[in-house]
Amino acid sequence: MNMMKPERTPACFLHGNYFSRVINAHINYHPGPSSRAEIRSQIVHSDSANANTDATLDAAIAELDDEYKRRATYEQRKLERVALYASKYVRKLHDAYTLKPERDLAPELVQAARDPGILKRLPQRVRNVYKLPILTEQKCTAILQELQNFNDACERNGWPRERPNSMNRHGLLLQELGFAQEFLDPLVAIYIKPIAAALFPDCGGDSLDSFRSFTVVYHPAKDDDEQHDSTLAYHFDDSEVTLNVNLGEAGYEGGEVLFGGGKDDGHGHTTRSAVTLGVGEGILHRGSHCHEVATVTEKPRTNLVVWMRSEKVRRKSCPMCGSSTCFE
Ligand SMILES: O=C(O)CCC(=O)C(=O)O
Ligand SMILES: [Fe+2]
Question: What percentage of the chain's residues is helix, strand, coil (to nearest 5)?
Fold first, then answer.
């Protein structure tokens, strides 16, 4: 039973909304002779204006060209990975892939799905961000152990893995590993959708029909190198509503999710409100609610992120580029 539709990639994916670490900005990118002018025209009025030197532009173009190659071959490589994992990977913890509500779900989530009004009545520490227990510790541990087993198999066999998105370098795309059918699909369809419909009807929370799900992994700042991320820059999500659940490990420090303004609120995003998540706890927020992750200073932190989407909303306006033609 597949209760949610397959994930769809917007037409703007090939050229739109690249994240450049070098200039710390999101920009559109077309490789070729006019790429330098294209980048300049986009950063000249932004905070990154001081990055407008030849050396910085060269470094940014190298980085953006790599990202362009990743995107241009994305669909083909995805098909190959899914076929490879399905035929070669031997699952270890089968419980990680299924949903048994009494074993896996926090009672607070089950109750909120029955009566979403509860969440509206609770005091919110950060406006429009709803925090509640989602998964049991046992479920979080099973998922983490299974992902570790999968990563070990990839290392041993030299199998390819894809980064979750252009900002997060480390983590795994959970649908490619088979976590959707019996775990994430029912989790979203039965438990999260009624809550999102009650909390966020204005932005498509009442018509969610697909999602993209991945883990994000951060290590303490001292380990920050190509192998690790310790933080995540300010952004909005490619979602109508996002579910973000901490999987562990207990006792990480830093790593608060810091919320600012809505993506259409202009440039005055000067203040941030912090949310810290314990193991199994999650937040629901609008995808357009901008946020970043504070530097992790102790122990690794792994979160499960579900970017939930509504085709109805996307046919009117793509959240990444605003066009009405990206999902035709
Ligand atoms: O790590 C987190 O808590 C947030 C991740 C996030 O914002 C994202 O992947 O969109
Ligand atoms: Fe995000």
Answer: 40, 20, 40
- Give the position, in ligand 1's atom list, of the atom nearest the Cα of 291: 7
Which residues are CB-neighbours of 240 under 8 A, at least 6 positions away? 200, 203, 204, 205, 208, 286, 287, 308, 309, 310, 313, 319
CA gap 125, 28 in Å, rounded: 35
- Could you tell me the residue ranges of all domains in the chain? 1-72, 95-316
Which residues of the chain are under the pLDDT cut of 50?
1, 49
| CATH number of this structure's domain 95-316 | 2.60.120.620
Q: How far apart are CA 170 and CA 320, in angstroms?
A: 22
CB 207 within 8 A of CB 310: yes
Structure tokens at 85: 């994992």
150, two tokens: 């999968």
Quote the pTM value.
0.93
- For the chain, the first-to-last Cα distance in angstroms comes to 26
CB 301 within 8 A of CB 276: no
Q: Report CA(26)–ligand 2 centroid distance (Å).
A: 14
User: Cis before residue 63, ω within 30 degrees of 0?
Assistant: no
What is the distance, to the nearest Å, from the Cα of residue 287 to the centroid of all Cα atoms in its chain?
Answer: 10
Distance of CA 277 to the CA centre of its chain: 16
Instruction: Return the ligand 1 atom nearest residue 292 CA.
Output: 7
Atom of ligand 1 nearest to the CA of 301: 1
Two structure tokens written together for 226: 């190509």
Cα–ligand 2 centroid distance for 307 (angstroms): 8
Which phi and psi (to 5°) does residue 113 adopt? -65, -35
Closest by CA position to 242, among listed 135, 129, 137: 129
The pLDDT, as a whole number, for residue 53 is: 83
Q: How far, in Å, from the CA of 120 to the mean position of ligand 1?
A: 23
Q: Which pLDDT does position 223 carry in this prediction?
A: 55
Rounded CA separation 231/168 (Å): 9
